[in-house]
């Protein structure tokens, strides 16, 4: 479907698949133990954010090598995700108190990135376009909830973030095929 193989044929998109599996594992972890320490949650999700940023830079490089295009938004979002992931890894105590806002803005930025990708996805598959559109609308709703309800978001953060990672993981696995 919508993955970046060497020659853009029907080969399997391992990057999307691995990222999807990682996000689903993160979601299951959050669903399984919602009372887990926010410190642990911040660290575990920081690794996912860090890998996503690295993957975005890899996709940008592949697009440049394969098609001669250099999407600036992939560079920007990749760097933002790497910096955010590193921040969460090295400052878990401080980040736990602002975790709802960090996740809200990260989910918001990811949804914007998803919306920016819609035109390319529509050229590949109309059903995939609609799925991506719906998933990104849900992501925006989750982000807005987290921004405007930080106290209640702190209580339900693990469920909201787990739900987002589950949807994002499913989306990446679909892209792999």
Characterise this structure.
The longest helix has 30 residues. It contains eight helices and no strands. The N terminus is likely disordered. Helix content is 84%, strand content 0%.
N-C termini distance: 5 Å
pLDDT average, as an integer? Answer: 83
Shape: globular
Secondary-structure-derived class: mainly alpha
Number of helix segments? 8
Proportion of residues in extended strands: under 5%
Number of strands: 0
Give the SSE string. HHHHHHHH
Biggest sheet statistics: none
In the residues, how many domains can be counted?
1
Low-confidence parts: 1-7
CA radius of gyration: 16 Å
Percent range of helical residues: over 70%
Task: Reconstruct the topology from this structure.
Layout: H1 14-32, H2 38-67, H3 72-90, H4 92-97, H5 99-116, H6 118-124, H7 126-148, H8 150-176
Helix pairs in contact: 1-2, 1-8, 2-3, 3-5, 5-7, 5-8, 6-7, 7-8
Brief description of this entry?
This is DUF308 domain-containing protein. This protein is mostly helical and 177 residues long.
What would the keywords be for this entry?
177 residues; mainly alpha; 0% strand; globular; disordered N terminus; DUF308 domain-containing protein; DUF308_memb
């Amino acid at each position: 479907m919508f993955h970046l193989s060497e020659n853009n044929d029907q080969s399997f998109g391992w990057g999307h698949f691995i990222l999807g599996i990682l996000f689903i594992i993160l979601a299951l972890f959050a669903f399984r133990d919602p009372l887990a320490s926010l410190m642990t949650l911040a660290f575990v999700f920081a690794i996912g954010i860090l890998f996503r940023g690295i993957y975005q830079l890899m996709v940008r490089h592949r697009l440049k090598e394969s098609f001669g295009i250099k999407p600036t938004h992939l560079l920007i979002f990749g760097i933002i995700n790497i910096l955010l992931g590193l921040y969460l890894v090295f400052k878990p105590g401080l980040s736990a108190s602002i975790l709802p806002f960090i996740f809200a803005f990260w989910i918001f930025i990811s949804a914007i990135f998803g919306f920016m990708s819609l035109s390319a996805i529509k050229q590949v598959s109309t059903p995939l376009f609609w799925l991506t559109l719906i998933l990104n609308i849900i992501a925006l709703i989750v982000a807005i909830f987290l921004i405007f309800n930080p106290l209640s978001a702190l209580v339900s953060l693990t469920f909201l973030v787990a739900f987002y990672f589950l949807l994002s993981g499913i989306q990446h696995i679909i892209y792999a095929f």
